[in-house]
Amino acid sequence: MKFIQLFLNGGKQLSSSANAKKVKPESKRRQVRSSFHDLDLKNWKEYPELITDSLWNLGSRSRSSVHKGDYHGNFVPQIPEQILKRFTKENDVVLDMFSGMATTMIECRRLKRHGIGIELQPEICKESQERLDEAKNPHGMTTKIVRGDSASPNLPEVLEPHLKALGRETVDHVMLHPPYWDIIAFTEGEDERDLSSCESLEGFLEMFEQVVQNGAKLLEPGRFMTLVIGDKYTQGEWVPLGFECMEVMRSCGLTLRAINIKDIQGNEKGKGKNNNLWRYRALRNGLYVFKHEYVMLFRKDKG
After folding, report:
1. Alpha-carbon distance 134 to 112, whole Å?
2. Which residues constitute the domain of residue 279?
3. For the chain, how many structural domains are there in total?
4. Longest Cα–Cα distance in the chain
5. How far apart are CA 222 and CA 303, in angstroms?
6. In this structure, what CATH number is given to the domain that contains residue 216?
7. Is the distance from CB of 175 to CB of 96 less than 8 angstroms?
8. How far is CA 106 from the centre of its chain?
């Protein structure tokens, strides 16, 4: 075998094989791109805040931006934060079909996403838009609350001008956080379009299916839809509302990708919880107190 002798640093002899491979200059590392997020997967360790396990311990409600826990049924802002970072890109369009007090829209502003929130109740629509207007908008994103009925067959037509203003016909993510049937009567039974006014589970699921169909119609193929939902008790029986809604979404042609369990301890305002009272009732009646919700992910097939 032939050797090349190298003399460096005062005659010190180094040997290397003539057939050894030349060391190539380090090439630039290309970013691994995704069709539904803009995370740099070459540097995946740089996102320690992102949850990849199915058990979500989010802690107390985040007080970032103008978020408050003053509206019953409001989910914590950590949920849309996690979802938007993992399943959307900057400048994507997000549709929240049960907007409430604009939690998702506020996070859209913060994370550089456009957003449209649908709200049925006129007074909540007004209050949530006012709160949204108070939130910082450092990236100049378009975020708005539209008064409407998410179950209406006319919803796509209602949203058409808002999407057109963004140069779009579809959205990149759909967020669903419906009423947990009749646990909270949002309109006190005065509006039949309100899912919490449904007299039966069957009626609730029928209306929810109409919402899902609208969302699926507006969703870009290959993108995701999130369902945040919990269960309930009725006359001493556990009603698996989350899984009932899950099956509705699957029946609409959406592919289930994840069932995440979120701890709701410390975030029960508006859900009728009193720890001591409910602990007593659980012991007396042989029940367990709800301390979890579901965050389910579904994908619309590309084709």
Report:
1. 16
2. 38-299
3. 1
4. 95
5. 8
6. 3.40.50.150
7. yes
8. 13
